[in-house]
Amino acid sequence: MTSADAIGGLLGNPAFCDLKVTSQQLLDYADATFGGRAADYRHWRIACASGQVIPIEQYLVDNGPGYIVYCENADVRNQAVLSHLAAASVLPSATTPLRYSDLGIVRAVSHHPDGYHIALDRVVDALGTLINKNPATYPYIVPDNVIQEETPIVVGDLVELTTNGVRVTWLNVRTR
Question: How far is the C-alpha of 27 from the C-alpha of 42, rounded, in Å?
């Protein structure tokens, strides 16, 4: 599963430090473009028990075909290279209308024969702290068979979802 808020763009547990990670900090984030397509930009700093500090930067184009550009040594020089790549690249047009993953607060919901129609107010997960500075909402239709709970989705729920690029295939309500 992809995630703009996961280092490396994939949910997992990358091992950056030989001993252990002592802190992680999200330094910057933005709605950006990469190769002419909408992208999520993130810049983190990982501190290791050994004293090593690892600056990480990535761009994630989260609809088909998806792309991740990622750097584990995002010093000033490499940041300039990534910025240039983002501006100068030309990616193929999107082939799917939906992102592969999203995280946000439900701002509107209504039930229809084809499922729940929701308006999602996208948030950034800054390593456990949610940041909500994006004023747009994004529409999704969540088929009834994707809802795992007996209670419906309600306004104010924090949800994470995945799609196959065309339909929502998984949804998790994080808070109620």
Answer: 8
Alpha helices in 9-150 (DSSP H): 76-88
Q: Are 118 and 173 in contact (CB under 8 A)?
A: no
Q: Are residues 80 and 120 in the same domain?
A: no
116 pLDDT more than 90: yes
Token pair in block for residue 81: 């290279």
For residues 141 and 115, the answer to whether their CB atoms sit within 8 Å is: yes
- Give me the residues paired with residue 47 across strands: 23, 53
**How far is the C-alpha of 24 from the C-alpha of 128, rounded, in Å?**
11
Let me know: does 135 contact 162? Beta carbons within 8 Å.
Answer: no
Q: Minimal CA–CA distance to 66: which of 94, 87, 97, 104?
A: 94
Q: Residue 148 is part of which domain span?
A: 101-175
The reply to whether 25 and 81 lie within a common domain is yes
User: Which tens digits make up the pLDDT trace of 27-51?
Assistant: 999 999 999 999 999 999 988 888 8
Q: Are 165 and 63 in contact (CB under 8 A)?
A: yes
pTM: 0.88
Listed in sequence order, the residues at least 6 apart from 96 whose beta carbon sits closer than 8 Å to its beta carbon are 63, 64, 163, 164, 165, 166
Q: What single-letter amino acid sits at 103?
A: L
